[in-house]
Structure formats: C-alpha cells, structure tokens
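Quick one, tokens below. Sequence please?
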C-alpha cells in the first residue's frame, strides 16, 4: 500500500511539469506538522496544485484557486482525478471526432508562422481538434486530458518521444520569433507525433496505480475573491500553505503563452490580460497586492489558523524582504505570531538560470510559519 501511494504521488505530481515554487516534500512536512486528517487546507495561488494534491493524499480536505487558466486546469485535474477507463473512453470518442473530421471548420484558423515550425502538420491538426472539442472547464475527464496535453504540448523533443513540439523547453513557452530563428538556424523540423496515442500512453502511466481517495476543489478566480467562491468553507480552513508570485521574477502569462493558447487564448504572448498582478516590479504595488491577497482569505480561516508561505524576490536583501512580509501580515492579522524565524534557502536551479545562465534571477527563497488571527 505504501509503495502504491508513493507511485500515485509521483505520477500525479508530475502531470504537467512546468516550474513549481516548492516540492511535494515541502508541503508534506507542514501538512503533517500542523494539521490532522480531515482538516481543511487552502492554497490560493495553486500553480501546479502541489499543496492540493499532497493534502488529499495525506487525508486532508483541500481547496485551491488560481487566476491563471493553466494553473487552474492542472490543479482541478488533480483535485478530482477521473478513472482511467473513463479517460480512455473519452479519448476514443475525441479521436473518432477527429478522424470523422467532426472538427472541420470552413476556414482553417489563421495561425502565425511559429506554428508551422513548432508542430508537424498532422500533429497540429490533432491538437486543433482537441482544442476545439475538449470541454475542459465543465467535464472532469476532459479537464484531465487537457492537463495531459499541457504537460506534453512542448518540450525537449531530442530527449523524449512524448513531447508534441519542435525542440523547446518543457517548462516555459519560448517567444515565437526567437523560437523560429533558433529552429531555422539549426535546421530543426518538428517531429510527427500521434497525439491520441501519446495521451493514451500517458493516461495509463498516470492513472493505472489509482488516484486519491478524497476529492478536493479548485477554482479559477482572483485570490481576492476566494472567500466568495468558497462560501461553504468560511471559518473552516486550518492552514494556508502557498507560494505567491515572487517580486519581479517571472511573468506567468508570458511564459505559458502556448499552453494558454491551447486553452482558448490568442496564438501569441500576452501581457496583463489575465492578471495585472502577474509580475509586479515595484515594491509598493507588490506588497499591497500581497496584503489584499491575505485579506481575501481571511473569511475562510479558523481561529488561530496557520499560514505557511514561501516567497522570493530579485534585487532585495533577505532582511528587508523579511521585514516587509511581516509588516504586511501584521497589518492583516495584528495578533499574528511567528512560529519560527523565517528560513532562507538558495535557489540553485531557477527557471531563468536554466534558460540563460548569465541572467540574474531569484537567488533565494524565504519560508514563513505564522499563527494568524
């Protein structure tokens, strides 16, 4: 049983491997230390759904929210994981629709040059069919399939036969003009992939060992609206375990533009259309955003709830980051109590350093443990 649980944990955590702010072990440590089975855990910046899934696997109830559709899709797929047989049946139906040209619009969508270089024509045709026919916002099985697509939409084609695209990082979507120049310079052509066969293979890999016994809930919403979205959970949350966007570090909307396109967005990077708070460069606006985020979760918390937060920044000294964070928490919960002194860890393999070793990104992360309210 322990080995089975370990396999379920590993395979579902890796459902869509874009960069995460903390590993499952980080979540497990605090969930086991500060909560018991049946307690309710909240992550209002759910990202890949690490807190949500780990909490469910540990027998806790869990809710999560994120304003970004990619994060929501992946988190919701983990919150309520379908049966393997149901996913395979849906894939058969979706492939039938593709083969019968159920997806056959009068005019093919006008896509930028990037897509010609990024995907083999047959692979792109299958992706467009899925893009049209997946009802991922409403159907659980479709949402899991969409999350599988997001995990394999692009990546290192020379390392894995499961990525659909020409050579790209699996973590972020590189910008279109840069990508095309790179592929041309290296005479790279996109591989032909059978999307449906790969999705069946990956669904079996992810689900054949089982799924969490407890279901959670995820919402597509702004953190400031989380209490309105989860009214039945007011005054019930035992612990908030989360990692907000870091100060002036990454732009999720830009970095995940291709995955956002698959979920219905435009076929190019966008800025500030999904969230004005995606990448805050100015300290004043950033800390006001964090303050408003904590105010948004207040109605959901039990008395003496626990706040566990991992945060990072660029071009700010650790002591100043610590003081600013504590000031913001105190402005929302004047009677808060720091359980331990914040711990600092070096970021050895940050997203920006992996893609550009000469770039200057987030060099450290800081973990806070607070009793609030």
């Amino acid at each position: 049983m322990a080995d089975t649980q370990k396999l379920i944990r590993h395979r579902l955590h890796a459902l869509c491997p874009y960069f995460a702010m903390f590993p499952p072990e980080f979540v497990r440590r605090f969930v086991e230390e500060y909560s018991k089975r049946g307690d309710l855990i909240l992550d209002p910046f759910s990202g890949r759904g690490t807190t949500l899934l780990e909490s469910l696997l540990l027998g806790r109830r869990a809710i999560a929210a994120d304003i970004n559709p990619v994060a929501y899709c992946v988190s919701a797929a983990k919150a309520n994981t379908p049966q393997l047989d149901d996913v395979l049946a849906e894939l058969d139906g979706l492939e039938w629709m593709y083969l019968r040209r159920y997806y056959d619009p009068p005019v093919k969508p006008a896509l930028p040059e990037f897509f010609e270089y990024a995907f083999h024509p047959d692979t792109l045709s299958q992706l467009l069919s899925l893009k049209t026919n997946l009802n991922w916002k409403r159907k659980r099985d479709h949402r899991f399939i969409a999350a599988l697509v997001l995990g394999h939409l692009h990546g290192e084609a020379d390392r894995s036969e499961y990525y659909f695209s020409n050579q790209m990082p699996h973590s972020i979507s590189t910008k279109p003009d840069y990508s095309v120049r790179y592929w041309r310079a290296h005479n790279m052509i996109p591989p032909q992939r059978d999307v449906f066969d790969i999705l069946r293979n990956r669904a079996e890999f992810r689900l054949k060992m089982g799924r969490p016994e407890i279901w959670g809930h995820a919402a597509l919403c702004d953190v400031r609206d989380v209490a309105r979205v989860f009214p039945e959970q007011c005054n019930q949350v035992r612990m908030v375990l989360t990692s907000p966007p870091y100060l002036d570090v990454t732009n999720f909307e830009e970095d995940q533009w291709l995955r956002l396109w698959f979920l219905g967005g435009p076929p190019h990077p966008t800025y500030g259309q999904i969230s004005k708070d995606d990448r805050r460069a100015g300290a004043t606006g950033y800390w006001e955003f964090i303050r408003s985020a904590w105010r948004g979760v207040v109605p959901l918390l039990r008395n003496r709830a626990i706040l566990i937060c991992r945060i990072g920044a660029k071009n700010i000294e650790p002591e100043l980051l610590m003081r600013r964070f504590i000031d913001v928490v105190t402005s929302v919960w004047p009677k808060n109590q720091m359980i331990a002194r914040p711990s600092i860890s070096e970021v050895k393999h940050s997203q920006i350093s992996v893609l550009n070793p000469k770039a200057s990104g987030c060099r450290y992360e800081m973990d806070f443990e607070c009793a609030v309210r």
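The CA atoms of residues 313 and 321 lie 8 Å apart. The chain has 16 helices and eight strands.
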